[in-house]
Amino acid sequence: MSSESASFPTSVVWDESMLAYNFGPTHPMNPQRLALTARLASDLGLFDRQEITIAEPFVATDGELGTVHSSHYINAVRTAGTSPDLADQAVGLGTSDNPAFPGMHDASARLVGGSLAAADAVLSGRTVHAVNFGGGMHHASRSMASGFCIYNDAAAAIQRLLDAGTQRVLYIDVDAHHGDGTQSIFYDDARVMTISLHETGMSLFPGTGFANETGGIGAEGYAVNVALPTLAGDGGLLRAFHSVVPPLAEAFQPEVILSQHGCDSHVDDPLTNLRISIDAQREMAVSIRDLASRICEGRWIATGGGGYNLTSVVPRAWSTLIAVAAGAPIGSQTVVPESWRSYVLEHYGAEAPLLMGDGADTWWRSWEVGYDPNDDLDRTVMATRKAVFPLHGLDPWFD
Fold first, then answer.
1. Which alpha helices (H) appear in the chain, and where do they start and end?
2. What confidence tier does 4 reach under pLDDT thresholds 50, 70, 90?
3. Which UniProt keywords apply (predicted)?
4. What's CA 269's distance to the chain center, in Å?
5. Domains of the chain
């Protein structure tokens, strides 16, 4: 049976309590993006499928948060949530990106609990795939909030896997922004390979994630960065993805894959420039799922991340992610349910798309076709391959 026609036991983390992660009405990260995703997934019938189980997130304890965050920082977040006027800007709290709000600690820790619940479900064997579309807060580092991210749920889930005896975890980040926080937390740990494909830091926050960031002492080659040209488009991103991710995944042989699917790379996202379609985002999710099936007995945890087009992009992208994880027959030509489109029009005054995909041409040029030194995308990919491939016994030119 092909992976496109198979179904997979999938745990999806969702509860309305996750909407408490709310920086205010003018902030780009509107929590209603999660509610609209859940509503669309439900209207598509995904939550009624036998292979999908809904898991409720919990508020991670200080001990669980402390596996990837400092106690000083956790206390600072708690203080900011009880007394927003006392938010410590030295650790990134109370800024325009990360304004303090009442209950900030519990709301942020609940997103972590969602990804820990996803990790626990996969570790226990209760499920093969798990999706926490409310997670993916990849900019938070050990002692600093950054880029709308307070606690790093993906990092906490990875540490949960390691503490349970997992020897190798592959983290793949396809958000438009560099997954800098997750990379920094595991920069010196060769048990974790972090691969981030993102818009170059020359044109986009956080200004990091270049090919020469390859890992700390003893973990050289385990941080992998593809700094994509600003206007890469579908063909460029998919060429880069397939030129870097599968060869390194095969060489690393992870026991679990955890991926971050920020959909802010979309052409209609207001904060980024990569010009990617939902069709290309779907293809990457399918490729990651298939890598997990081939390499690590299917064990795959997927999170959300960035994404700021509230009604047109985010719900379609993450409902598609859930469908890919479960193996549900929802593709680019699937009609968006009229019930959902009517809801969006009534409550948001927006005309939602008619189809789940964008009708984009996602053809991409295989690396085996050849390398063009005059092409910005190819130079980016080659810089990454030259920096890390030899460290894993791979040839940057031919593998």
1. 32-43, 62-65, 71-82, 104-124, 153-163, 180-185, 233-252, 278-295, 314-326, 338-348, 376-388
2. low
3. Acetoin catabolism
4. 16
5. 10-57+119-392 (3.40.800.20)
Amino acid at 305: G
Alpha-carbon span 250 to 379, nearest angstrom: 23
Q: Copy the structure tokens of residue 356.
A: 């789940």
What is d(CA 202, CA 337) in angstroms, rounded to the nearest whole number? 40
φ, ψ of residue 225 to 5 degrees: the values are -135, 130
- Residue 11 buriedness (CB in 10 A; 0-12 / 13-18 / 19+): buried
Q: What is the pLDDT of residue 398?
A: 87
CA distance 106 to 338: 36
Q: What is the DSSP string of 211-239?
A: TT---STT-TTSEEEEEE-TT-HHHHHHH
Cβ atoms 87, 108 nearer than 8 A: no
Among candidate residues 139, 177, 198, 261, the one labeled active-site is 139
Owner of token pair 């680019």: 332
Angle 69-75-77 (CA atoms, 0-180°, nearest 5)?
A: 80
Query: At residue 387, what is the residue type?
Result: A
pTM: 0.98
209 Cα distance to chain centroid:
15
The pLDDT of residue 1 is: 37
What is the per-residue pLDDT across 123-155, written as a single tens digit (0 to 9) for each? 999 999 999 999 999 999 999 999 999 999 999
- Phi, psi (deg, nearest 5) at residue 190: -75, -5
Q: Could you give the percent of the chain with pLDDT greater than 70?
A: 99
Q: Which residues contact 240 (CB under 8 A, 6 or more apart)?
A: 197, 226, 228, 232, 377, 380, 381
> Does the annotation count 139 as an active-site position?
yes
- Is a pLDDT exceeding 50 seen at residue 211? yes
pLDDT tens digits, 225-240: 999 999 999 999 999 9
